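Example 9 (inverse folding). The structure is encoded as follows.
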């Protein structure tokens, strides 16, 4: 085999391996960021949400499994956040109005989970809800009751929160949908409350 042909074949092999690797890591060329890949993976492979003990803004202990039978819109926050979390809090207050009939029927609940449980006491969680315009029903703000519950939830929901060195966090933000069977089935952008609402409405009424 002549050197030119050997070089050409070797180059084609390297190209083929590269294309295969890219296809595998981008879910068939559909995802070019880890966040997009996470959303595709959840959509195609729903994940069971683990049992996790939490303490609510009202000081009550609940297990997330106790919310089965309802559709959940879930976000992860820390109460001192002035960016994503602040906007999401306002969105949740608006969802309380728009989804009031489903909330009153016990079909839908909004759930904000703090990934900073040491600082986000029930009092801080309640203050966060008040600042956001909480309507008083259908929205639970809670913190994991133990490190195991926190880590289990972060892992399943794919949440990353890294201390920024000045008292806050760098974190990804989203609105996750958990179905009535307790499975994480979709993830929407942090500013896509209307899309998440439509998704749930379509399935609740189907």
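The amino acid assigned to each position is listed next.
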């Amino acid at each position: 085999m002549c050197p030119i042909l050997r070089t050409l074949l070797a180059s084609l092999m390297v190209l083929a391996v590269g294309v295969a690797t890219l296809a595998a890591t981008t879910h068939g060329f559909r995802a070019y960021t880890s966040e997009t890949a996470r959303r595709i993976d959840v959509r195609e492979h729903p994940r069971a949400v683990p049992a996790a003990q939490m303490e609510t803004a009202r000081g009550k202990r609940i297990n997330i499994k106790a919310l089965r039978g309802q559709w959940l819109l879930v976000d992860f926050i820390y109460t001192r956040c002035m960016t994503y979390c602040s906007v999401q809090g306002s969105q949740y207050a608006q969802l309380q109005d728009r989804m009031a009939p489903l909330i009153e029927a016990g079909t839908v609940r909004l759930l904000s989970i703090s990934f900073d449980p040491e600082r986000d006491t029930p009092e801080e969680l309640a203050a966060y809800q008040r600042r956001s315009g909480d309507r008083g029903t259908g929205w639970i703000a809670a913190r994991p009751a133990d490190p195991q519950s926190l880590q289990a939830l972060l892992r399943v929901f794919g949440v990353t929160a890294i201390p920024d060195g000045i008292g806050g966090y760098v974190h990804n933000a989203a609105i996750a949908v958990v179905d009535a069977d307790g499975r994480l089935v979709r993830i929407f952008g942090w500013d896509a409350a209307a899309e998440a609402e439509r998704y749930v409405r379509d399935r609740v009424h189907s």
